[in-house]
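Weekly structure sync, notes
Attendees: PL (lead), two postdocs, one rotation student
Agenda item 3: pending single-chain targets
PL asked that the sequence for the first pending target be pasted directly into the notes so everyone works from the same version. It is reproduced below exactly as submitted, 186 residues in total.
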Amino acid sequence: MSHKLDKDELHPALTYVEKHSTDINDIVNGVVAKYSHELDQFIQVVQECLQMIKTNEIQEYSIETLQLQALKLPTVLYFASDGLEALGTDSDVSEYRKKEVYNDIMEQLRDTDYTIPDKKATAEKQTEYESMVYKIYDRAYKKLKLRLDYGTKLLESIKKVLDLRIAKINKGKGGDEQNVRQYRSN
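Predicted structure, written out during the meeting:
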């Protein structure tokens, strides 16, 4: 940059972006929550349990808790993935609508004296809301996809911990039913 950045001039632009970003993020989060609510609750429960372990309120997850989580999480992911498909469809439809409105405006301007760049600028200006709706659904899709990916990683981790616990029981105790019951009661 050849000139010095004036922070006072930058502040209004930052304020504008922050305000509108907050509004758009609220909309995106609302769309995502519609499909991720149960997954979010599941993650919250796991986080609370980990916090309890960290603060020594409990020593570790019980095998029964791990088994229940290993069974429940795939079901939660299944239903959230339906939401991902719905968001994909919403994104596709909103993109189609944006192109349709743009093309209609370009058609209306076809026989005018506007230059092609002016026509494009006019069509883009008049499709700002359609563009924003498309971007909202696109971001919501990406956000839910990320949550599903992390949920899948959590499931893999739960399975590994469960396998390690079972292996520990079987290795150190001979694996008989009485020792397994004794371990569970500890």
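Discussion points:
- Residues 114 and 120 are 10 Å apart (CA to CA).
- The chain has a mean pLDDT of 89.
Action: rotation student to compare against the earlier draft before next sync.
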